[in-house]
Amino acid sequence: MSLELDARQRAMLEEMGVRVWSPLHPSGMDDAPARATHEAAAPTRPHAPETVAPRATTTRPEAQFDSQTAAPVPTVASALPADIAAMDWPALQQAVAGCQACGLCQGRKNTVFGVGDTQARWLVVGEAPGENEDLQGEPFVGQAGQLLDNMLKAVGLNRGATGAQGVYIANVLKCRPPANRNPQPEEVAKCEPYLRRQVELLQPQIILALGRFAAQSLLQATVPDIATIPLGKLRGQVHQYNGVPVIVSYHPAYLLRTPQDKAKAWADLCLALDVAKRVPAR
What we know:
Layout: H1 7-16, E1 63-65, E2 72-74, H2 82-85, H3 89-97, E3 115-116, E4 122-126, H4 131-136, H5 143-154, E5 167-171, H6 185-202, E6 206-210, H7 212-219, E7 239-241, E8 244-249, H8 252-257, H9 262-278
């Protein structure tokens, strides 16, 4: 695909340390470290209010997008717990805020439900809140969040915008693991229904999965032996999560430590843009 960039976008890419280029499909398959460190400390940014109601849930066939053609391939989705499946957006937020399904509730200061435009075409899924996210109740508010914002702005997206420029940002886990340790399987299992209901209500046209745990959580039903596959080998393909195409990329915290891979993350964004343009609007 080709991507027309204005001066502002080119400046943001230069800030990311990325040379402006137009990849066809990303080919780099270098492996990421097992865990990308959670968002580092940074100045507080005002919370972007969720002012638009999420789309009404509709029944649609689950589909998998072929990695080369993006043609839908039927898949079977497991059923959500009945109570979560019946929740609207406010009820889901309230359920997350009061959740005590695992031990993470004991040490949290705030749950981190998500932020952005609930009518957005794009959903960005990270791994788990860090210290600043726990304090502010918003995902990606540290240095990694600043990098993510610059990456999104480079392709015309903004967590504070609505309409075509809008994006919604959430995490797999809604509570911070102690000392930013890796999410445990039972914690992910308890939180996954909340994320899945968010996807059902948001009905995004594309999901950008950032980091190994986000990729594993979203793709566990469709990618065999997902836990053994390095993150780099999941890139450059169009996966699916309950009918929504998923593009896998590196966590911004990893990119802060490994800036040479920012060009690969840019290629992932270009691929996501290409796929999003080919997905019919809902």
